[in-house]
Amino acid sequence: MQQFADHLAVERGYSDHTVRAYLKDVAQFCRYVHLGPKAFDEDSTPDAGPAGPVTLKRATRDDVRAFLGHVQTAGGTARTAARKLASLRAAYRWYTRTGAVERNPARELKSPKLSRELPEVLSIPEVSALLEAPDLSEAAGLRDRAILEVLYSTGVRASELAGLRLRNVDLPGGTLAVLGKRKKERLAYLGDPATDALHAYIRARGELGHPTHDRVFVNARGGPLTTRSVQRIVDKYVMQALPDRRGVSPHTLRHTFATHLLNAGADLRVIQELLGHASLTSTQIYTHVGIDRLKEIYKHAHPHA
């Protein structure tokens, strides 16, 4: 399992979070086959146990199919089942390549059909209310304003924001060097409000626990801010500024960033580059989100609209 983890991290370039998710999925499958559904439901640790290698060797296609079925009957979505199947496919591909396993029972199974859910986005007034919520009279408020501004201005993921280092920030140029998925670097562009907010925070950064490292965003003790902490900060101001909104996350600001760009006439290829999507297919969902804008243009442009 450790060799598989090294393969994911080094050869595939996956993040620590993604590697843990893959290992957890494979471990759950091994426990399900070896000990039954109860073991899958109760244990959430990414440890396959001593039966892991043996289970992977003897598991059949029916075992994989039953496991995926149990994932959904136990409350998981089709998307969750599809992700677990992807984890098993990756594991079996690697183990068969290295000769540890002779056959791949996950190869011929079809992934569950996924509904194309439209992402939740905020309106411009809602974004404005959210950005204005932090108290700028204290260092923590300056940090939180900078976090919200950067998330909306650049469309970066929460993990990318948490991983930013001071050397990645070019305030005069209004850019950030962002390390995205599979350790692929791209430039993110800051608008003037985000540049000003980030500049104000960096000047006050030393007031938060006197940090000795170069991570941009820090907690009250000066330690690096985690992805989960970014989520909690967004939750705090959503409850404060948008109490009737549910399910707003840092990723909602990423979706909002892309949708507002598209509605303003930005090219889909440009949005793809700004988001760091490897494929345009991932970006095309925003064409559905922008349907209201398309209707508006049609109404004003077509003679018989």
How do the helices and strands line up, and which of them pair or pack?
Blueprint: H1 2-11, H2 16-35, H3 37-42, H4 52-58, H5 61-73, H6 78-98, H7 124-131, H8 139-154, H9 158-162, E1 169-170, E2 175-179, E3 185-189, H10 192-204, H11 227-241, H12 250-263, H13 268-275, H14 280-283, H15 285-289, H16 291-301
Antiparallel strand pairs: 1-2, 2-3
Structure description:
This protein is mostly helical. It folds into 2 domains: 2-98, no CATH class; 124-298, Intergrase catalytic core (hpI Integrase, Chain A). 58% of the residues lie in helices and 4% in strands. The chain contains 16 helices and 3 strands. Strands 1-2-3 form a 3-stranded antiparallel β-sheet. A hairpin with a 5-residue loop joins strand 2 and strand 3 (185-189). Helix 8 crosses helix 12. The protein is globular. The relative contact order is 0.09.
Order of helices and strands: HHHHHHHHHEEEHHHHHHH
The number of strands is: 3
- Relative helix content: 55-70%
Distance between the termini: 61 Å
